[in-house]
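In this section we walk through a basic example: taking a raw amino acid sequence and producing a predicted 3D structure, encoded as discrete structure tokens. The instruction is simple. Fold the sequence below.
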Amino acid sequence: MTSPKRYLSRRSAVLFLAGLGLAGGLAACGSTPSAPEADTGESTTAAASPVELTLVSYAVTQAAYEQIIPKFVEQWKAETGQEVTFNQSYGGSGSQTRAVLDGLEADVVALALAGDTQKIEAGGLIEPGWEGEAPNNAIVHKSVAALVFREGNPKNIRGWEDLARDDVQVVTANPKTSGGAKWNFLGAWGFQTQTGRDDAAALDFVTQIYQNVPVLPKDARESTDVFFTRGQGDVLINYENEVLLAAQNGEDLPYVVPEVNISIDNPVAVVDANVDKHGTREVAEAFVEFLFTPEAQEEFAKVGFRPVDPSVAEAFADQFPKVTTLFTVADLGGWEEIDKKFFADGAIFDQVQSKVGK
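The resulting token sequence is shown next.
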């Protein structure tokens, strides 16, 4: 795989070679014409042939990528003369992961959690060490969990502890199909374990919450539909970025960001086997690099994601409330341990579902 430095050097090389081509053209204008080269049957403009990239991401990123992709396409065209078109696929992160493993030929995956990307790595499509192949350990944006409630907050929802009350119905997606739902589960679990309680207390707590979950939608977008369109539930566990995006679209949702929260870190990676098969590695790596630029980070921030670029984060600081206790996946043992402990067949989530009779 290519390191971040080589990402930059490849981009520089493209511009350098373009400059050489221009200089060569200018020199040719003032020189004696040479004999035409023999026709080899190969195009001398192969580098400018149109290229197609497939981006596979999770449902709630679509609004951001709809703004970012045209910017990248324009910049790449200006730098290289090459036209880029994108195929885009959005859905639950877990479902998208399985689709890639089952043959959806993504060039770039931008999934809800590193654990899903690691599954694609384990499937042999992404080379080990992908986290080091982009800035910020490949975490392209962040969020936290938000609790959305009904207008006027009739159930007086203040934090995680209220979700376990007998009089509260909770809407959250299925962590078997949704990366966002994994974050939701871990947020509730960590509310216990990161504030001094043990695993037994955490298990009791999340069991009480899932006792209050009437249905498990397949992804975050369907959860939102269940809560708002179908009118089910008293509180929706959602991404903060979804709530902020809804407000920008005229839907000012009442919500609270719990003071004990999980840092929802979202990675991006090039799918090595596919870019090598498609001959798209250079443009795929350039696209990943572009996602970390202030220009792209601003677009993520505009739709509610917490940016990883420090200057952009500072500019949008007023948009994001501070979290008193912010824990990470590493605090819970890392994704390999988390998936084994919580989400594998027969693990804690299945045990919880068995207890609540679902």
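Looking at the output, two observations stand out. Residues 4-29 form the longest helix (26 residues). The mean pLDDT is 87. In the next section we compare this with other chains.
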